[in-house]
Amino acid sequence: ETGVTQSPTHLIKTRGQQVTLRCSSQSGHNTVSWYQQALGQGPQFIFQYYREEENGRGNFPPRFSGLQFPNYSSELNVNALELDDSALYLCASSLSFQTMNTEAFFGQGTRLTVV
Amino acid sequence: ILNVEQSPQSLHVQEGDSTNFTCSFPSSNFYALHWYRWETAKSPEALFVMTLNGDEKKKGRISATLNTKEGYSYLYIKGSQPEDSATYLCALRDAGNKLTFGGGTRVLVKP
After folding, report:
1. CA angle (A99 as vertex; B64, A4 as ends), nearest 5
2. Spatial distance between the Cα atoms of A88 and B38, rounded to a whole number of angstroms
3. Which residue in A102, A110, A111 has the most chain B C-beta atoms within 10 A of its own C-beta, making it the best mutation to test that interface?
4. Torsion angle, CA of B47/B48/B54/B56, rounded to 10 degrees?
5. Which of A23, A63, A110, B1 has the most CB atoms less than 10 A away?
6. Per-residue pLDDT, A106
7. Where are the alpha helices (DSSP H) in chain B?
């Protein structure tokens, strides 16, 4: 077990709706990153939060947004859902800007299906 | 922009055989290379963090090497067991702590 928990484990939404995914980071970790894994591909970086501020963003539109809370847990929000948003969403926690051996620990993911 | 390729996409291995597969990258402009093992319905499990050219890491029957000059890392599994069946992901970590993943190698060990 990595200590990173995500909720819900899976959900189904209708195109155009909004969704919020949640992640509790491993104890002591101050950085949370979100990744999208579409079928047949490796995980793609969405964005990263460090001490409650966005600290890096991948090639995703603004309708993908996030939050990090004082306890370092995080949310990923997606507005105006599209069919192509159907994917597994992974959360990873780590200690940022530490040694070169810094490791990221992943949750089990949330499977989002948009119909 | 980091680019990571993994090959093969999938392979079948007979139990007891050894195998290896590749993570390749055209640029050495990264801080570390990570290997993850990912079983279905579980979270990706960290295997190795590799940081130096010529780095070698070992964990039980699994080992990895890194050659930043030639642009590749190999993951080796010695004496494959059914529990080694998983997708193995390679990722490069940049200065901003972002991971860029390859597409993974799916390993199926047949009893």
Report:
1. 80
2. 13
3. A102
4. -50
5. A23
6. 95
7. none
CB contact under 8 A, A106 and B93: no
Tokens representing A93 are 């926690």
In this structure, what are the phi and psi dihedrals at residue A84, rounded to the nearest 5 degrees?
A: -70, -5
pLDDT digits (tens, 9 = 90+) for B5-48: 999 999 999 999 999 999 999 877 888 999 999 998 899 999 99
CB pair distance less than 8 Å for B99 and A109: no
Residues 6+ apart with CB under 8 A from A86: A38, A112, A113, A114
Q: How far is B72 from chain A (nearest CA, A)?
A: 17
* pLDDT of chain A, 115 residues: tens digit per residue: 668 999 999 999 999 999 999 999 988 888 999 999 998 899 999 999 988 999 899 999 999 999 999 988 999 999 999 999 999 999 999 886 555 667 889 999 999 999 9
Alpha-carbon distance B107 to B105, whole Å? 6
Pairing of strands A87-94, A31-37: antiparallel
